[in-house]
Design a protein that fits this description.
It contains 7 helices and 5 strands; from the N terminus they run E-H-H-E-H-E-H-E-H-E-H-H. By secondary structure, the chain is α/β, with parallel strands linked by helices.
Length: about 130
């Protein structure tokens, strides 16, 4: 499965820790991330990550394009809801496109853990048929 990974600056360490904790699940899938987040995940886990541009210079738009084309099966988007971002329209688009294409989306560690454990159990295999 193709997994998209996005984390705002305040959530990057959390994303690294999540990927370390669930490395055994993630290694069996294709990972896509915005630039800085992808680099940090690679450094922390040794997992290969297809990296887009940094989020603030178009990476969130690139991720959004993959979602629009229904090419991602799961998205972990750890966003900083406390601070407004200049890329807020791109953030909203990513979330909206996940809704349109029925792509499971986690925006916090609690929902990410549930989705990753579901992925491990095979509960997301329906995505193959949906595509």
């Amino acid at each position: 499965m193709n997994i998209g990974l996005i984390a705002h600056d305040a959530k990057k360490k959390l994303m690294q820790n999540c990927c370390i904790a669930y490395r055994g699940i993630l290694v069996k899938n294709e990972l896509y991330a915005t630039g800085t987040t992808g680099r940090l995940i690679e450094e922390a886990t040794g997992l290969p990550v297809h990296k887009f541009l940094a989020g603030h210079v178009g990476g969130e738009q690139q991720m959004g394009a993959m979602i629009e084309q229904n090419q991602l099966d799961l998205v972990l988007f750890f966003r900083d809801s406390e601070s407004p971002k200049p890329t807020e329209p791109d953030i909203t688009k990513v979330i909206r496109m996940c809704d349109i294409h029925n792509i499971p989306l986690a925006t916090n560690i609690a929902s990410a853990e549930i989705l990753l454990k579901s992925l491990e159990r095979g509960d997301l295999e329906w995505r193959e048929m949906y595509k």
